[in-house]
Write a structure and sequence with these properties.
The structure is a single chain. With 501 residues, the chain is of the alpha+beta class. 30% of the residues lie in helices and 14% in strands. Strands 6-7-8-5-4-17 form a six-stranded mixed β-sheet, covered by helices on one side. Strands 9-12-13-14-15 form a five-stranded antiparallel β-sheet, covered by helices on one side. A hairpin with a 4-residue loop joins strand 4 and strand 5. The longest helix has 26 residues, at 188-213. The radius of gyration is 26 Å and the shape is globular.
């Protein structure tokens, strides 16, 4: 991008938050092309410091945030409000050649599942100065001969609530017992902010221990369902189970664990912990609930099926002829020996519009690629589309007709069966009869994507790798499951990955 172009963007950036500015910048600008025609990965650094954390705490308190919402600013995070932007939103790492990985380091976290058929990577924001106060940073820069630069928009009290809070702090207009600009690190707000962060990190670590101990029986990315065994009970550091604080700690840990499992399957980018109160109680139905008397009409043990975060959760008993032991329990965490939970994408609500994606015309790409669908001109990152928040799909269609990516539903299923009989596509019939019960049991099959032609016919079921056309076609597609984090104990033979991509 030219300096003039960047200056033009910057002139319009003042009313925007930094995250919104980065999002809009990434929509119109891509990083320089690196090895092999693949765009180089990006990392952004922000100069947030301790005072910014205190401002965030005050701002969130004034907006009514509670619990996890008061944990402050994350030291590392993705860029929000960028869903579906390939190479930015939790994606792009698989298209980086080994030479780029070697130059810039691993472009994914060690806990991301990076086997073939899964996406990983994405643009990250880092905040390396969170442990330092503003006076410390200013003194350090002054000693190094580097001027401190203030953003003039920070003094505009009409621009944002954060500017108003910053003005109150800098001019000592808050009670001295609450905040003192001369000793910001020792102020009550700073101490509370650190305490909340430490509490959050402690609870998060305990939830992660339980998550890593979960036993994945099978995770089939072809339809996106997960069979998993979970611990018998959430654990907390407090030993006094009668303590109210222990109960709050346990409920937070349970909700956090449930959310980590839901993220493997859900189409949502975020699920609030507050929305998982009933879900966590239902999944840990064998744990005594001290507040059960407040809701006598709800018997947790009777809740075997429920939805949370657009995920259908179903509890079933382990068959008597297939007993499960706890021999592989992690760090003494016992798993439920009697039950398995199946998590799958919630069936689509017929009253709501179905998720669909129109595939752009590929004629220009075909001309550039000289008919080679594997060339980099066709395999550009702009052609990847995120469908239903779960599958990254890229379609190459040289025909002039428009095609769409829609859910595989009963109407399309019946239509395909009639077409198979009319055209006597018995090999296709056999492939479907084998694949659907194994990879997409029950109603989970009606949450898979299907490539639909302009006439409404099903052209392909990409997750199953099934082409439904009776004659050879130039239609090509690549598909990957979204970035996921699986429990550390998962084995590759428990994961059914997508073959295309």
């Amino acid at each position: 991008m030219s300096l003039g172009g960047f200056a033009k963007i910057k002139s319009h950036a003042a009313p925007l938050s930094p995250n919104t500015f980065l999002r809009d910048l990434l929509k119109i600008w891509r990083p320089p092309v690196a090895h092999g025609g693949t765009p180089a990965p990006m990392r952004f650094g922000k100069r947030h410091h301790k005072e910014d954390e205190t401002e965030t705490l005050l701002m969130r308190l004034s907006e009514g945030y509670r619990g996890e919402g008061l944990r402050g600013i994350a030291a590392e995070a993705g860029i929000p409000d960028c869903p579906g932007m390939y190479g930015v939103s939790d994606s792009g790492g698989r298209d980086l050649p080994d030479s780029v990985q070697k130059d810039v380091g691993p472009w994914f976290s060690s806990d991301e599942y990076s086997k073939p058929g899964f996406e990983y990577g994405g643009v990250k924001i880092y905040r390396p100065l969170m442990d330092y106060t503003k006076p410390t940073l200013m003194t350090t820069l002054r000693a190094a001969g580097v001027p401190w630069v203030n953003d003039p928009t920070n003094s505009d009290l009409k621009l944002s609530k954060r500017n108003v809070i910053r003005h109150l702090m800098q001019h000592n207009l808050l009670p001295q017992a609450l905040y003192n600009s001369k000793e910001p690190d020792a102020s009550t707000l700073s101490i509370v902010s650190r305490s909340i962060r430490q509490q959050f990190l402690r609870r998060n670590d305990q939830a992660d221990r339980l998550f890593q101990a979960c036993k994945v029986i099978v995770f089939d990315a072809k339809s996106g369902y997960l069979d998993v065994r979970i611990p018998l009970a959430p654990t907390a550091e407090s030993q006094d189970e009668t303590d109210a604080g222990w109960t709050v700690e346990k409920e937070f840990i349970a909700a956090r664990l449930v959310r980590q499992l839901l993220y493997i399957v859900t189409p949502r980018a975020h699920i609030s912990l507050q929305s998982l109160e009933l879900a966590s109680k239902a999944m840990f139905f064998n744990v005594e609930d001290p507040y059960a008397a407040l809701s006598p009409n709800i018997r947790k043990e009777s809740i075997t099926v429920f939805t949370a975060g657009e995920v259908l959760c179903r509890r079933s008993r382990v068959p008597e002829d297939r007993p499960v032991s706890n021999r592989n329990s992690t760090e003494g965490i016992r798993l439920d020996p009697d039950h398995i939970w199946r998590l799958s994408r919630q069936p689509y609500d017929a009253r709501l519009p179905e998720p669909k994606r129109d595939v752009p015309d590929a004629q220009s790409s075909l001309a550039t690629a000289h008919g080679d669908p594997n060339s980099m001109a066709v395999r550009s990152q702009s052609s990847w589309q995120l469908w239903d928040g779960r599958y990254w799909i890229r379609v190459f269609d040289p025909s002039p007709s428009n095609i769409r990516i829609c859910p595989w539903n009963m109407e399309r299923h019946n239509g395909l069966k009639r077409r198979i009989e009319e055209r006597r596509q018995y090999r296709l019939k056999k492939s479907l009869s084998r694949a659907l019960p194994f990879h997409a049991p029950g109603r989970t099959r009606y949450t898979m994507p299907a490539i639909i032609g302009a006439d409404g016919d099903v052209l392909a079921l990409p997750t199953l790798g099934i082409d439904t056309q009776s004659e050879p076609q130039l239609l090509r597609y690549w598909i990957r499951y979204k970035k996921v984090i699986l429990p550390g104990s998962v084995t590759d033979d428990a994961v059914v990955a997508l073959r295309s991509g």
